[in-house]
User: What shape does this take?
Amino acid sequence: MAGTRQSRSAALDALAADRGRLVRAGAAQRVAEVLRDRIIAGQLTPGTRLSEEALGEALAISRNTLREAFRLLAEERLVVHEMNRGVFVRALTPADVADIYTMRTALETAGVRAAAAAPAERRAAVGAALADALAAEERADWLAVGTADLHFHQAIAALAGSERIDDAMRQLLAELRLAWGAMPSAYDLHEPFLRRNRQLTALLEAGETAHLEGELTRYLDDARELITDLMRAVAG
Assistant: This one.
């Protein structure tokens, strides 16, 4: 219990550091963005109660602004409101995960097909995200490996050069992080796919986009199966 309180305290301290991001807009959309980023980073996990009082104090915002941010996040399926209990970070089901991977496959393969014509900086972002993951692996920081993996796949989809694909991926990957919260071991989840991220990057750099699309599709199918099987096993 003490560890849980310390974890929540650390998350609130991290949120307090985000106050500066709210100065310009000061609107619910910016608050929702801050909370979404904390979900993607794995700092707000499934089942976490989002206290209006604690978050309002950490971010120095009004309850009305926070409630509107909750509404936006609920539309993105990242939080749920439970009557007489409050707002909680959502816990996903295996069906949710399967649906997420169906959408991910469509968006990420669109990025692969556009890779040959993508600007150099977009292609470089894929390698940079892989480098971040490998650096986190060296530190044995598997939470950070997971965050870098999300950025890796967002960079692949971003090769399409579509703002709408970028927005859709950002929401999908935030949902995916919620699924990871149900996994018993971050190492067992991420380690084998980190090896495969190396392969995907090598294919991208070699310009073998047809091969890359096939490998990416198999990768996503394997990840979906692993996560949904583990979720069912944990649920008993």
